[in-house]
Specification:
single chain, 220 residues, alpha/beta, Rossmann fold, six-stranded mixed beta sheet, 7 helices, 10 strands, 34% helix, globular
């Protein structure tokens, strides 16, 4: 069963001779529980695709379906709630809040939704990612690899159906990259989540169940 699907997805910027086809009719689907790597060079459209899949940007035309629902049929406030509850984002830049500790960063999206964290589940995620000894520390006291683990824990903590990872190892050395990706894959398998990761790193992409290539805004 496909949990995520696009239908003739297009995103154009500019107009006339300056028009750029960032996405040019992308048809793409991901099965429940699948780990897919989207590989492409800089400017190929992979980041634009990920932003569309997560509802962070609206397409020029076409649709994105999550569990059969067209997410762009939602109003902006509905889409924001949908993103917070259904999708976990892992960005290259971590996006941690520097003035609150690791645990508070991890549960922040849950509290923003007015919910109480599932302590047993969150503690399990923290343990799986090797962060149990770090939860009282501030993000800037951690290494890059540890900060990325916190970002992954935050993405998993809301129990999202889908994890979208944007170059999650881009700021890490090769050894730490392998560790972080293995942990992310293990977490997704353990919690039965679906993951789409964009990367330009062929070696990292090999960890996925399936590799999809994108060039000039089209799946090839």
């Amino acid at each position: 069963m496909d949990i995520l699907k696009t239908d003739d997805l297009k995103k154009y910027y500019g107009s006339g001779e300056m028009e750029v086809h960032a996405l040019d009719g992308v048809n793409f689907s991901v099965a429940q529980g699948e780990f897919v790597a989207v590989v492409g060079t800089s400017g190929s459209g992979k980041s634009t695709l990920l932003h569309m899949l997560g509802g962070l940007d609206r397409p020029t035309s076409g649709s994105v379906f999550v569990n059969g629902k067209d997410i762009f049929s939602l109003k902006e406030d509905e889409l924001a709630i949908f993103r917070r509850r259904k999708i976990g984002f892992v960005f290259q830049s971590y996006n941690l809040i520097p003035v609150i500790n690791v645990y508070e960063n991890i549960v922040l999206p849950i509290k923003l939704d007015g919910e109480v964290p599932d302590k047993e589940y969150v503690d399990g995620v923290i343990k799986t990612l090797g962060l149990s000894e770090k939860i009282e520390r501030l993000p800037n006291t951690l290494s890059g690899g540890q900060q990325q683990r916190v970002a992954i824990a935050r993405a998993l903590a809301t129990k999202p159906a889908i994890i979208l990872a944007d170059e999650p190892t881009g700021n890490l050395d090769s050894s730490t990259s392998q560790d972080v990706l293995s942990l992310l894959k293990t977490s997704c398998e353990k919690y039965k989540q679906t993951m789409v990761m964009i990367t330009h790193n062929e070696e990292i992409a090999q960890l996925a169940d399936r590799i999809v290539r994108i060039e000039d805004g089209s799946i090839i």
